Amino acid sequence: MALRDAGIAQFNLVRVSSIFPPGCKIIPKNKGLEYLKPGQIVHVVISQESSNEPNRLIAASIGVAIPADSEQFGYLSEHHAFGQTDDKAGEYAEDLAATMLATTLGLEFDPNTSWDEREQVWKMSGKIVRTFNITQSAIVDKTGLWTTVVAAAVLIP
User: Fold this and answer.
1) Domain at 2-155, CATH homologous superfamily
2) Phi and psi dihedrals of 101, rounded to 5?
3) Which residues are catalytic?
4) How far apart are CA 142 and CA 133, in angstroms?
5) Least crowded by CB within 10 Å, which of 2, 36, 75, 92?
6) Which ranges of 7-127 would DSSP assign to H, the alpha helix?
């Protein structure tokens, strides 16, 4: 059901690692689905979390870090967690993707500073143009029905 809610249950999903390809463009989900056919093999960076523990907060998030140079690859990160809100899980995933990109680009930073401070330094460098996250969370049903959340980045050729 989580894959249906995400709009990707009708595809054969192949999990891939976390590279945002050079020249890749982000398009809205409804437009992207127009390029795909049911049963097609689709490459995804996907995060999911499941639980049947009553009232448990679960979250899945994809962080994105896009370099200013469109010929350079960026990063997608997957993060899944228990007990984290959308904001906390999303911030963590976004920070993870941005940190991976910053280290690839050779940007210096203090890992002990807050995400907000690092984000400002990286964006001011002119080498990282955009970071964001896609996050889904849920509270497990009080009777303990299995609950799953999914966040995904679908790569369309």
Assistant:
1) Pyruvoyl-Dependent Histidine Decarboxylase, subunit B (3.50.20.10)
2) -70, -45
3) 12, 17-18, 78
4) 28
5) 36
6) 29-33, 86-105, 115-124
Non-local (6+) Cβ contacts of 26 within 8 A are: 64
If one counts every other C-beta atom within 10 angstroms of the C-beta of residue 134, the result is 20
The pair of three-digit structure tokens given for residue 124, joined into one six-digit string? 């001011």
Query: Three-state SS across 72-96?
Result: CCEEEEEEEEECCCHHHHHHHHHHH
Which tokens belong to 81? 């967690």
3-state secondary structure of 101: helix
Question: What's the pLDDT tens digit per position in 19-51?
Answer: 999 999 999 999 999 999 999 999 999 999 999
Confidence of residue 157 (pLDDT cuts 50, 70, 90): confident
**C-alpha to C-alpha distance for 12 and 146, rounded to whole angstroms:** 23
Cα-to-chain-centroid distance, residue 17: 11
Residues 42 and 154 sit within 8 Å (Cβ to Cβ): yes
The CA distance from 75 to 22, in Å, is: 10
Q: What is the pTM of this model?
A: 0.91
Structure tokens at 62: 């994809």
